[in-house]
């Protein structure tokens, strides 16, 4: 248990520090917004770029890896949307937000630090390969569901291509052939920016949780949290273990990725459309708080620590 806590507590401890610092007024809301923007637009793209440039990418695409994860996404998205409509009267954008909050994981602020802490460099390649596909798929699906026939393919593509994480993925993939010719001082700058991603992301996540709170109550957010933290990783574990053969590290990364709490992109998506904001913020807050306990369970199931 102490080994598991050594993986989890640094991650959630920094989130707690950010929360308490904002709760006590020691730091302002502007600090959290600035840290979040720095991580999202600069530091994390540098971390992804550096990893993809230097990583050994498999020659054959791991289709079983993708299928195992995204079958889980589809299942919990469908369940959350159906439950929200049937039992909570959700319609239109709020119903999409319920599904999006359940299927989209908080990879930036929780997933990257936790998985790298658990698996180290060995887990970096499957982690960032999944990030490369995860965001475009979930964001595109949510936009199509929200706008229906009005959804513009060109608008969706433009938003994806200008997304900082996607830019980091594309730049890292393009620059792999010339990585050996990059001067050492340039790599040092890149390393410094990349090393700031994890602590700054976690502190900003704690500040954000203080801002969001449980605005919608706990009933539907509890359902979303259960689907996100328990059902999604369980589906991925079963598929990655018994259906699609893959290295244990890849299977473990997929399970931990699925076990991450609801992603902040669900809140940003709801804000863009002006509907479902309270639902998204409540789901993010509750699932992140509960993830401390559920992460310990999944680490034990995977035999880590």
What does this protein look like?
The chain is mostly helical and 305 residues long. The chain has a single domain (2-301), classed as Up-down Bundle (Na+/H+ antiporter like fold), CATH 1.20.1530. The protein has 14 helices and no strands. Helix 1 runs antiparallel to helix 14 (277-301). The mean pLDDT is 85. It is found in: Cell membrane.
Summarize the topology.
Layout: H1 2-23, H2 29-54, H3 63-88, H4 92-103, H5 107-119, H6 124-147, H7 153-161, H8 164-174, H9 184-195, H10 197-212, H11 219-243, H12 248-258, H13 264-273, H14 277-301
Helix pairs in contact: 1-5, 1-10, 1-14, 2-8, 2-9, 2-10, 3-4, 3-11, 3-12, 4-6, 4-11, 4-13, 4-14, 5-10, 5-12, 11-12, 11-14, 13-14
* CATH class label: Mainly Alpha
The CATH topology name reads Na+/H+ antiporter like fold
Number of beta-strand segments: 0
Structural class: mainly alpha
Helix count equals: 14
Residues in β-strands, percent = under 5%
Question: What is the overall shape?
Answer: globular
N/C terminus separation: 8 Å
Structure described in brief:
By secondary structure, the chain is mainly α. It is 79% helix and 0% strand.
Structural features:
Na+/H+ antiporter like fold; 0% strand; 305 residues; mainly alpha; globular; transmembrane
């Amino acid at each position: 248990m102490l080994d598991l806590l050594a993986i989890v507590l640094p991650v959630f401890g920094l989130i707690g520090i950010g929360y308490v610092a904002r709760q006590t007024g020691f730091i302002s809301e502007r600090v959290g917004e600035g840290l979040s923007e720095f991580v999202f637009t600069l530091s994390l793209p540098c971390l992804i770029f550096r990893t993809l440039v230097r990583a050994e990418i498999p020659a054959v695409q791991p289709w079983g890896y993708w299928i195992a994860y995204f079958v889980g996404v589809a299942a919990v998205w469908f369940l959350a949307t159906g439950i929200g409509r049937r039992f909570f009267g959700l319609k239109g954008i709020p119903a999409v937000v319920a599904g999006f909050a359940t299927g989209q994981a908080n990879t930036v602020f929780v997933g990257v630090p936790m998985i790298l802490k658990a698996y180290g460099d060995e887990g970096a390649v499957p982690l960032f390969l999944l990030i490369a596909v995860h965001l475009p798929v979930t964001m595109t699906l949510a936009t199509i569901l929200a706008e229906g026939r009005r959804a513009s393919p060109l608008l969706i593509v433009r938003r994806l291509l200008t997304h900082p994480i996607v830019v980091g993925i594309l730049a890292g993939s393009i620059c792999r052939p010339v990585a050996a010719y990059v001067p050492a001082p340039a790599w040092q700058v890149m390393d410094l920016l990349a090393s700031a991603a994890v602590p700054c992301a976690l502190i900003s996540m704690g500040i954000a949780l203080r801002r969001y709170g449980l605005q919608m109550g706990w009933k539907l957010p509890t359902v979303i949290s259960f689907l996100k933290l328990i059902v999604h990783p369980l589906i991925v574990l079963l598929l990655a273990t018994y259906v699609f053969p893959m290295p244990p590290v890849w299977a473990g990364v997929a399970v931990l990725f699925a076990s991450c709490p609801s992603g902040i992109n669900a809140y940003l998506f709801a804000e863009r459309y002006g509907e479902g904001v309270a639902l998204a913020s409540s789901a993010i807050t509750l699932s992140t708080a509960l993830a401390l306990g559920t992460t310990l369970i999944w680490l034990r199931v995977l035999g880590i620590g």
